[in-house]
Protein: Dihydropteroate synthase
Amino acid sequence: MSFMTFGDKSLDLSRPHVMGILNVTPDSFSDGGSYSSLDDALAKTERMILDGASFIDVGGESTRPGALPVSVEEEMDRVLPVVEAIKARFDTIISVDTSTPSVMSESARLGAGLINDVRALEREGALQAAANTGLPVCLMHMRGSPSTMQDNVVYDSVVEEVSAYLMARVAVCEAVGIGRDKLILDPGVGFGKSLPHNLALLNHTVDFRRKGFPVLIGLSRKTMIGEVLNVPVDERLYGTMGANAATYSQGARLFRVHDVKPHVDMLELMYRIEREV
Ligand code: 7PJ
Structure:
């Protein structure tokens, strides 16, 4: 079936869904102060839900190219109050963008519905922590680590290598009891990939879909859009939408984006045309 359960909510993954990005890293807020950061996070959350987001993806670790690691305590302090506050106020699915076992466990306890791990549960203890939550997991491919991932990126065949990696992680998940019905795959646009790699992966979205898992794509405002269009980050919406539309046509149904409303509208049209209803 095409339904997947995220905590207390079930979604039909034969239709598209938008995941709104909520960064709770200090540099993503104007003043960095914790009081207004929470208010700001809640205001952004409300906006994204009104605009039609199915998920709010809360992330407390910057994984931008060149970003440095954050301590467990710091990540917990950033993420958990936001998860708790969103859960108390809104009826949405909270996704936690984390690789940290204790953030996974505690977020789940506070009502998160999805673990979104750019390291595909490779960090020590993450596999077991994720399995213990019973939640679905988005497994993303990354080559290297954020601090070095864009240095010297070489693949023989990027599509085959990313696909083989993700299927190996699926096997590892299954071995600890995270069933296939709880897994989402993501090729990891921009995570240790040059522009040609990103383009090849996107043009082979259907290959990932054919493995039998829902596919999530996260390319919103990323460097690859800037490289193609030669535009700064605040002018990447149209390019982002075009690239997401291309992957929808190849079966991607989950879209992690900053700009929720334009994507909800665009994807609704794509879906309605495909269904002719
Ligand atoms: C992704 C993500 C992505 C998933 C980030 C950024 C970098 N999670 N978290 N897929 N990217 N699943 O948004 O520029 O592509 S953080």
